[in-house]
Amino acid sequence: MKYAVIDRGDTLSQSLAEQFHQLAAERGFEREDAEPDIVISIGGDGTMLQAFHNYVHRVSKVAFVGIHTGHLGFYADWKVNELEELVSMMAASEPIIVRYPLAEIEVETPTEKLQYYALNEFTLKGADATLVVQMNVNDEPFEMFRGDGIVISTPSGSTAYNKSVGGSIVHPSIESLQIAEIASINNRVYRTLGSSFLLPRHHHCDIISKKEQRLVLAIDHVSIQRSDIKSIRCSVSPHKVNFARYRPFPFWNRVRDAFIDM
Ligand code: NAP
Asked: Is it the case that residue 49 has pLDDT exceeding 90?
């Protein structure tokens, strides 16, 4: 088995990464940072976002496993004291591969088209003033948005930023994108739905810049700023992310453990 490890960079996560390499060597696993089959993320959900983006160029060929060194995560189920058990299971059994939907955007500027993938979400905000954009759904005008921003989340990202802005939690078996507002202004000129909504896999939405504005586009944990964005097309990606499950990790148990039985 070819594997790579990404850790959060703190002392505990780094020392667990070292322990993992030792245990993996004893089992004959091959360390392969460039083209791994399995990527072990050690840290939190934020570390899994980094691991995903490190390997997004070969997303269909890798499967991710998360070890959490803080609180139980949405992407990280293995605990610090379960490292040996995980390596034994990796050596002894084939995992079940669970596939989650990703969000895809195409950003259009006067000179180029840029494509990005998100595991959690894309967030669009104005850098200097409120964001002013027109939103079209399936090429039909839908609403004129003015406000702090828009969050376009995947089902597995629905428990992250999307939840903080009042969006619903969506099971990752539902291939969809959720579009949620951040503090929209509603008056005679700008009128928005006021609640989040879900787009199915075969629909798309275009966000069209309606003034000269510097935009902040966050792709999961990474933000970029640009003044030349004309429009952004958002859809459910045809690609999915693979998670290697060596034991069950039910989504609704994670929701309960993160938000209810704290
Ligand atoms: P961060 O600001 O250091 O951490 C954001 C928090 O979100 C962390 O506690 C992280 O968990 C948690 N998180 C990440 N993905 C999650 C998921 N799918 N479900 C539930 N919680 C999740 O930033 P970061 O670690 O680089 O993560 C970037 C993420 O932060 C973005 O994708 C966005 O979802 C989130 N964010 C949230 C808000 C908000 O809720 N107001 C604002 C900005 C960004 P860990 O501690 O396990 O890493």
From this structure: yes
